[in-house]
Fold each of these.
Amino acid sequence: MRHWGARILCFRFYRQRETSARETHGTPGEQHLNLQGKIALVTGAARGIGRGIAEVLAEQGADVAVNDICVNDGAESVAQHIRQQGRRAMTVQADVANRAQVEGMFEKAWNEFGPIDILVNNAGIETITPFLKLTDQEWTRVTDVDLRGPWLCSQVFCRWVLAAGRKGNIVNIGSIQAAKILPGRTHYAPAKLGIEALTRNMSAEMTPSGIRVNCVHPGFIATDMTAWIMNDPEILPAIVSQISVGRPGQPRDIGTVVAFLASDDSGYVTGQSLHVDGGWIYK
Ligand code: NAI
């Protein structure tokens, strides 16, 4: 009798586990992370990885403020996609490396949209210039946008969140180049490796106040930034052959991981930098 009782209990347990696994993972594009009622601001979201992140966050229930240095048709079409998910969207122009513009961006988004819960520091630029030819100007602009920008946006965001007595979540977008040497990136790579230290240090200072901070390092993702590789019949296969998953990543491959880190499902994860690269650095 006890034997059968245990079997029935086991059966119920496994059925419950199967059902909750289906509920948790769902099918691609289905809502399975609870971002309902959250408001996110994604920088550099008019195209590429930022667009993928903004779309996935909206599909998972968040309203999204779409930032870019240039608010054009791209930004408007991202906002349109978000509204089609039944979520609110707004576009907000700002250069992430300009304090006055960043302060104006948060003021506008916060006042028009409500308290922002999630900041994704995605905006970034890359140039490829040999070390000996790099100018002060190029070094300064790349590190300003790629490292000081996330620091600046995070500082302004955290001040708003703490002043409102709320909790928050920051996800920084770094790069595989935090760990992998590619030629002509003596400015870009240090900025992206710096994002890892920024993530750790901000996490240590902000998590006790309720703001978790994590970082995603994308590998090779098909966007305008990498179009020159995608269109090169020699370089493309050479790079793909180094990727264990066997294909370039898509912006949504980054978006789904960002959505997880931005959700309460990752509530015990902070200060971490996660490579989302199809296994490129480890092959
Ligand atoms: P992308 O060039 O396609 O898009 C970047 C977006 O950021 C553009 O819409 C651009 O207008 C905007 N932006 C540039 N400077 C800005 C500024 N100062 N303020 C506000 N917006 C600004 O680039 P992609 O590929 O989507 O890259 C997004 C992030 O991912 C960047 O931080 C990049 O460094 C990083 N990344 C990209 C990889 C890839 O393979 N595509 C690999 C590793 C990291």
Note: The beta strands are 39-42, 63-68, 89-93, 118-121, 168-173, 211-218, 273-276.
Amino acid sequence: MALSEITSNYTNLKKYMDLDQKGNVMAEYVWIDGSGGIRSKSKTITKPVKDLKDLPEWNFDGSSTGQAPGDNSDVYLRPVAYYPDPMRLGDNILVMCETWMSDGKPNAYNFRHDAAVVMEAHKGEEFWFGLEQEYTLLAFDGWPYGWPKNGFPAPQGPYYCGVGTGKVMCRDIVEAHFKACLYAEIQISGTNAEVMPAQWEYQVGPCKGIELGDQLWMSRFLLHRIAEEFGAKVTFAPKPIPGDWNGAGLHTNVSTKATREPGGMKAMEAAMEKLSERQADHMAVYGSDNHLRMTGKHETASYEKFTWGVANRGASVRINRACAEEGCGYFEDRRPASNADPYQVTGIMVETMCGKVEG
Ligand code: ADP
Ligand code: MN
Ligand code: MN
Ligand code: MN
Ligand code: MN
């Protein structure tokens, strides 16, 4: 689409978006599909939504999303959280959903369910999570936005937290997404341009327990949805461009009541001990293609071996200098890839630190 067409479409659309809805609510039901992608569809609710209970269960054709066989294709959507909709405004909402099967079991890709079970069992620990979501913006042809066609930009160096033409790409999308998250009451805590040009980061958190996964998934939905309006593609691939270009991660900051209290270093050291025994289990749910990113270069650790250290960006887990000096706070698991499922990442963290629960 040419820019003039986009502009005139926007003017036309605005006329309709401003129409009175006569008391109805447009609810966008959002869920995760069979490949870690995001899907959504819209439902009319005939009065403003004040409580989760005001949102009915719904369903979709799971055979079209890789989530169910054709001969038993109904998958059910169960609302678990809702947020103000920054696109439609007013009483309209975005609804995060779990996926369930007709036999009463969670869908095979419903990773939220198990995570919620283990977190509920250990809620006395008061887990907080803050995740750093890195991603890359691509042009319609799949090459990073703003990169020379059939070529590469100048080597990495000026782009991280960069300012100025040629140093950053698509700041408009990033600004729009930041505002949209705030409007949606997602606890976005910041954003920055990354080391590779057209790569960005934002952080969500600290959030309590399962809320981190709900909010991060909804923030990913918003990012895709907004980039769509600007004609860019979002990729969460952990190593979008091979070679001397940084990969993308989902650094996972973790604390509990015990780590935040004076003397919390002791609880963090105990957590390191437990984490060191489950390297392979964690890597199994820390995203696909993560071995391409975790080469030990570009601020990553070894894929095979668990390490931790203070202020060490080459370790699996880093405890920042301020926390080490205060003797309490949180730690940062740097292993998860940008495409990891935050429900799985936060779920296994609680499981490893506090013990498995049969769900
Ligand atoms: P980095 O220095 O690794 O780039 P960022 O500033 O990008 O760190 O992200 C830090 C993240 O840690 C934020 O999402 C923030 O919400 C989160 N965070 C801060 N304090 C805590 C805490 N006590 N428990 C869990 N997460 C926390
Ligand atoms: Mn239909
Ligand atoms: Mn960061
Ligand atoms: Mn980063
Ligand atoms: Mn980090």
Note: The mean pLDDT is 95.
